[in-house]
UniProtKB/TrEMBL annotation:
Keywords noted in UniProt: Signal
Protein name: TonB-dependent receptor
Pfam families for the chain: CarbopepD_reg_2
Organism: Cellulophaga baltica 18
Matching InterPro entries: CarboxyPept-like_regulatory
Signal sequence, renumbered to the chain: 1-20
Length: 133
């Protein structure tokens, strides 16, 4: 009888621990091109080692996340990083989608004078005086 009671208590304890976690899932897409899925974008739970990559449909998922408040960090090459707060509750799925905007890249164009000066310096040849013995 004592053995059965111990096993029952153990199972109840395990069940209560398994309920102290939730799930985070969502989609990462391009905010400017008809919400097109971003394949292999990174989603990180800030200040934790948890990182996920999106699949071919732009979906990601974190399982067994302890209940609490977190910040998700969405990153993708050529796009601005985005941070979103999320609340994880026991036995619930928190859905967080991230629509990323592409980065603006500034290009410094050379003026005609700078190009001409560069071309002139490339065509300049210096001559050394040397005597043959």
């Amino acid at each position: 009888m004592n053995k059965v009671l111990s096993i029952l208590l153990f199972l109840v304890t395990i069940a209560s621990f398994s309920q102290n976690s939730g799930k985070i899932m969502g989609n990462v897409s391009d905010a400017e091109i008809e919400n097109e899925a971003l394949l292999f974008a990174s989603v990180k739970i800030k200040d934790t080692p948890n990182v996920a990559q999106t699949n071919f449909h732009g979906n990601y998922e974190f399982e067994n996340i302890a209940s609490g408040e977190y910040t998700l960090v969405f990153t993708f090459l050529g796009y601005e990083t985005k941070e979103v707060a999320v609340s994880v509750k026991n036995n619930e799925i928190s859905r967080v989608d991230g629509a990323l905007k592409s980065k603006t890249i500034a290009i410094d164009l050379l003026s005609d004078e700078e190009i001409a000066a560069t071309e002139k310096s490339k065509n300049t040849v210096s001559r050394r005086n040397s005597s043959l013995k």
